[in-house]
Design brief:
Helices cover about 30% and strands about 15% of the residues. By secondary structure, it is of the alpha/beta class. Helix 2 crosses helix 3 and helix 4 packs parallel to helix 5 (about 155-165).
Amino acid sequence: MGTAIAGGAPSVNVALRKTLDLYANLRPVKNLPGVKSRFENVDIVLVRENTEDLYSGLEHEVVPGVVESLKIITERASTRIARFAFEYAKKSGAQENSRHPQSNIMKLSDGLFLKSIRIVAEKYKEIAYKEMIVDNACMQMVLDPQQFDMLLLPNLYGDVMSDLAAGLVGGLGVVPSGNIGDESAMFEAVHGTAPDIAGKGLANPTALLMSGIMMLDHLNERPAAPPHRSRHRTRLPRRQVRHPRPSAAEPQRKNSPTQ
């Protein structure tokens, strides 16, 4: 599912997340044996709100030369992703749950996200909770990623920081992803498409294979899914999972070489 840059049709991926209400984006990031990276012992889970914020693509041209993008934050979505993150932290053994808005500047939108999470955090006293401004969090991530256990972020910040975290362990070619809702789930390699290197022997299937393992684990297919070596389990809290029949045409995959 390729998306053109600065033009073309809207993202099919974003539309799927909205239509299926896949409100939680889950991205575990950890070092893999044999993959060279600048850091060792990185083991972080990023939880990203997946349905609103600037990344939802609500924008229009006011007058020629002036474009307005809408940043929508709701108490319902913020509370829901907070519950997901704290439940996941509780079940996976994560010790710290940090969240990273820019609420010193966007006091209403990111402020609402923060206030909603604080209310949920009060019900999970056993989990250490820390707040950090997103720009400082990015700096801390590249200085000392081992200090982080789990990150909870709004949609746009979560997209940026999850890609940043992937770069610390070898790139997007070695990091899986899951989009989770109460009734459906979609797992994907997040690096997009790269038809320009198709057939050249440069493809790195690791992210796609790991996303498949996350899917099997989510479906409780333990014999088929190898044990997840991270301290974080990929088993996800949900009430019901439906398994839609796959389409006849397989989506195009990006082939991204490992850095």
